[in-house]
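In this section we walk through a basic example: taking a raw amino acid sequence and producing a predicted 3D structure, encoded as discrete structure tokens. The instruction is simple. Fold the sequence below.
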Amino acid sequence: MKIQNPVLPGFNADPSMIRVGDTYYIANSTFEWFPGVRLHESKDMVHWNLLPSPLSTTTLLDMKGNPASGGIWAPDLSYADGKFWLIYTDVKITEGAFKDMTNYLTTATDIRGPWTDPIKVNGVGFDASLFHDKNGRKYLVQQTWDHREYRHPFNGITLTEFDTSTMKLMPKTARTIYRGTDVKLVEGPHLYNIDNQYYLFAAQGGTVFTHEEVVARSQTLDADSFESEPDGPFITNFDTPDFYLQKQGHGALVNTPSGEWYYASLVSRPWNHKNESSHDPRGWSTLGRETSIQQVSWDENGWPRVVGGHGGQVEVNAPKDAIPTEAPADNSQHDDFSSEKLDLNWNTLRIPFDANMGTVSDGKLTLIGHDSLASDFDVSMIARRWQAFNFNAQVKVTFDPFTYQQMAGLTNFYNDNHWSWVFVTLDDQKRRVIEVAENNRDTYTSYLKDDAIVIPEGTEAVWFRTQVRKDHYSYDYSFDGTTWHNIPVELDAAVLSDDYVLQTYGGFFTGAFVGLAAVDYAGYEQPATFNDFDYKELPETK
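The resulting token sequence is shown next.
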């Protein structure tokens, strides 16, 4: 049995992997998407099942107004004392000298919850993890932020003891245990006690094509006591530009019951336009940062090494003691909206799906029009990840606008500055029409304008479809759900990639989504109804 990388395709960044008994768990970053922290479980590391997200209430996570790619950065999942511990960071500022953030702690005896009300831990730096030492003591390990313009903003890895009797940190115990290498940007730390030595795994180089993971170790937890692994880094694709997997780094180590070792890492799969060099630009990562798993061996000097070399492998041997489980062939989804709760694949922007946003049940989703898709506050949208390079997604839409300021339809979305959609609205002649529009670097373009497609009188609903084909995508419409008409607007999928967004904005940490949205910036809360959503993945093409 083989692990096929990436094991969690589509936006599943910054994996924190643990094992409890015979079950493996992975927690991933979710940034501005709600609910917070994505969880999966597996018995074999090959097939992963999606679990309910732990941060599902505004008590645990209040992100209204957060910037794009703010919110939940690099959660850390651990298990000790008969319960799960989750450290998570809510980042409120992404650009500029400061990274205003708060680190929180919540616990649960069952991975499916309920999770305790959050405990505020600190705001020293992001990517915090909780280390449970074998002697019973606990420590917060974290990247440390320095706002001073004459210092490097990534100021090493700080260790601070955590007092379980008060459930608070002991600030006076804080010390820098590792400053990284000359690559800099050291972050994402996870600490382990293995054979009575402390091993620190940390990311460096920024979460782009220069990304890497380094390992350092020490006999103690004293300040500046950690030495870097020789002949490192532990994993990187900086020097493997033609490999299918790129950007590996920032992850966590786990062992199996029989003593094998594996490392879960973020990874990307960039593609190039046909007229581009495969090396410059290095590529466009529309599926965002995903999760890969690599096997780990230990050399004669006690250092961990990625099996097959530091570039990793696409196919990896599954654990010998894995318990095989069944899973769907792909991540295709059909939702008839018959449940009163949204499917776990759906996410919303910053705020929860509640009565203010809409309702779901009895075969329909109703979204109440609020802010535009460029807003950081009240956006009525549910969306799911792109998890394949090629897919079709479609939905039936019923909407009766009475002003052009009301719109409802199907969207492909990266963040508030980068998205497009096909939608129903009203034109100046008071006719319902279909328009396609794109927001590219916050420049809005209507593609059909006066040639918007008029919806015939008496037509109750329209069907919208998007066809995503790796480097481009388009939209179709139908008036009966059977006969489809292509809208002759071909859009560049690169606009919805991490790498494109990075060119103008530092918050580039998510991935493309396909979603359903209703807008009424006139403020009259005009509702739209959606039926029978389909997301169908297609084979990957070269």
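Looking at the output, two observations stand out. The longest helix spans residues 498-502. The mean pLDDT is 97. In the next section we compare this with other chains.
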